[in-house]
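Team,

Forwarding the record for the chain on the shared tracking sheet. I've put the sequence and predicted structure together so nobody has to dig through attachments.
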Amino acid sequence: MTGGLVLLAAALLSWPGRSALRRDRRRSVTRRADVRTRPAARVPLPVLAAVATTAVVALLSTPLVAALAGGCAALAARTEQRRRADLRQETRLAVLVEALAALDAELRSGRSLDEATRAAVGACADDDSGRALARAVRAPEGEPTDDGDEVGRALGRVAAAARLSSRTGCSLAAVVGAVEDDLRARSRRRLELRSATAGSRASTALLAGLPVLGLVMGGGVGADPWGVLTTTATGQVLLVAGVALEVAGLAWSAWLVRRAVR
């Protein structure tokens, strides 16, 4: 039963999201017959965390505790992955904003589109973002750059502006400047919302640690709350319910924060 719970939790955590499915459908349509075989995908970090934690805790405690610890470890690893992904996206956005500012300045100074694009790519600190910006400006009719995230949407707007400019002869600098101003405003709004919700997030983390403190205090006064929770049927039901409520509360608060800062 423990192994089944761990495998079910790992499968749910590694299930691809809507953006991943959309990219897979796009690749399946545009894939050539002579495409090279890709290497096997690595095991996701949440799955590794769940298996390792379950194996270690199973040696020290009951199978139920091992299964719960493995699920919590997988959720913690998934949360850390999301945090790092959000940090990478914010870094890419900041780099893209600076590249758009350079492109806008070069275009307004009277330089040609190719020269301005080369200067903007040279001023871009991230090579991938620079190449994506160059593709959006020089080949706006090519593959769509919108992959569902904010960077992709911004590059999609730049590509649409480049298409409009090439067809009608309107100024590309004005649209590039508008996209840059919009990205800067969004970044400021996210920072303000994070500052406003910092106190709530700290309170959530403190409340989540209170049950652990209660177990420690109960053991300090001579009781055995951990033994009751892990060796009796009623205690095991309460343990599962408590962990489920903890996870649900943390997930709900994290979802509210992520939805607010988007």
